[in-house]
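Hey, can you fold this?
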Amino acid sequence: MRSEKVTFQGTDGTLAARLDLPVGKPRIFALFAHCFTCSKDIHAASRVSAALTNLGVATLRFDFTGLGESDGEFGNTNFSSNIADLLQAAGFLREKYQAPSLLIGHSLGGAAILAAAADIPEASAVVTIGAPFDPAHAGHHFLDKHQEIREKGAAMVDIGGRPFRVSRQFLEDIDDQRQAERIRKLRKALLVFHAPLDEVVGVNNATNIFTTAKHPKSFISLDGADHLLSRRADSIYVAEVIASWAKRYIPDLEETMPVTALKADEASTVVVEAGSDRFVQKIDSSGHPLTADEPFDAGGTNTGPTPYDLLASALGACTSMTLRMYADRKKWPLEQVAVRLRHEKIHADDCADCETREGKIDQIEREIELKGELSIEQRARLLEIADRCPVHRTLNSEVRIKSMLT
């Protein structure tokens, strides 16, 4: 993952942001809105964003006005200004990169995403995580200060152990939002995440959002998670579910084979140029989709392994499977096999036992890790068996390739 610091103009000065990018060309862009008084670097935002990059999604997360590293005073902000900041963020992506196809909001950020979604036409999927149904829920953090705020115009309140200045206009603004109407008119696919035992925003909020929204809509229960998604596993789970769910509504996330007359069957593999970038290849190997590409320094976009990477992977997989079959047959205590491979071109005269004496030859280094209470003799025998894997034998034997045009 690459994470770049970026800035853009907000409602009251410059907003600080991070753009988390996948290795290679992003498939889509997403916009993430964090929780009330949080920052872009809170675990829920950073971890979900990082996990999404592994799935080809570039995500922009930013500090709202007056929070984190962004300009402005929090006391002068409100829910409406948060919506405006979100629209500025979407505009920044639209102008500099690509408009967001996916909108994600955590806690009050989820409510803000629901409110802003109608004004981001390129977005076709919306996700909320622990979001309140009514923005006025944000005022529940300091109910004991409401009267003082209304009488004096502002007051210092404690939220999550930090002091914030909250003004009368903030309370008036969150009380004046027509959120139910926005949710009914969303007209975008909606995914609602909520933890049943969320002590900050009760799960009844998710129920209200879900029942108010029109189809298509989905609900995922985050059993065992807390409001802030403090556990890394919960954040990764959320990201994986988002990417899988969003494929139904965002075509660019679909793993589809380009149209070709050649079709794969149980005994064949078909490789087709994707057409999106110079070297990207879509592979259908007996019904299993793969992608191949070249790295950046070779003119590719690094969206998949290189052909030699795939070759090494085949040898590694075959090695591990062969050792597993042999150890199981012998009933040896082999717990796990791991194989690391490295392909390189070496000068023939550097190889003492090679028949080729001039030019360069291919060399694959294979490092095998065996876990389990194995004896020295068993380990030595397994190393011998590794050389007997079918792919190893194929690579060391004469291979004939017949080519034809169709």
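Oh, and this one too while you're at it.
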Amino acid sequence: MFHKRALELRLAEMHRRRYCIVTSRGTVAIFLALQSLGSEQGCVIIPAIICPSVVNAIVYAGFTPEFCDVRLRDFNLDPVALERALKTQKAVRAVLLPHLYGHPTDIDRIRELTRSYRVPLIEDVAQALGGSYNGSPLGSFGDFSILSFGHTKILDAGGGGAVLFDSEESFDRIRALARRLPQKANDYHQLETIYRRVYYTLAPLIRERNELSFLYSSFPWIFRNLFLFRDVSPTLVERIYSCLPLLPAIVKKRNEYAAHYRAHLNHEAITHPLYVGQGVYWRYSFLVRGNRQYEIAQAIRKRGVEVSNWYPPVHRFYQVHPEKLKHSEYVGDHMFNIWVDPRYTRKDINRTVQAVLRSVT
């Protein structure tokens, strides 16, 4: 049986960090990193295209999410918009930088900005495990870096996360904070089922009528126990550890499938991303021009192919009168994600290409 400490040492080594603390979820890792900053109130800058659970972690930690626009070229946090937010917002406590869909944005510029304004950078590698930037692994750039091994992640161990950093003071603080978390809820799986039903009911309504966003305000708190708990079982630790040797082959396969999509999804309505660095494809994500997102997604699914339209511009969920974030809203209304994980065969990938092209045309 693998000891938790052995896994933490291995993850720290992989990402060139001094310290690692394994957590029950990636959301917990974000929560602990934020709480370690202290109790002083303020905001955390985050791109508006992001998984809502990441924003929930900010709220649970006692901070206000400050949403920032993304770049159309790679769907990631826009350094120009970030600089504007850092100049205008008071009491910025951190910048949370996800490598969305598995790919880094301009890390050098973003790190330069956060250091200039003396704001901690939290690097979210949940969708980018195994990627790199200028020869360094993603996860080695932030003041804190976040990993996740949950459902659909690059290494899907069924759960678990980690927070990486280099400060001994942070290690003592985060370890103490982790001990205060509650145990996993007895009705966890029932809560999970209810959460999904409620979320997928609320999200379309709010996107259509933003004044309904008040319905979402209590939603994260009702399901707080679903996201914040301390339990990391020996079985989960062993499962994560045993997955790590598979990472290079998984990254290679994902990137091969993505390259096939890029080469064969040739249509005037499709806009492919322009990525920098050696990322890893969480899914293959692209934009389709026009206003037929729902119609096209349904047509693809009717052909027996999996497709999603994540992520919505979540600033609409948390603000009754949201600021207009032009690029984020365009991405949210035109995004398509298709699968690249190794459970698929080349035949499946070719079938997906044909389903997308026929549905877009």
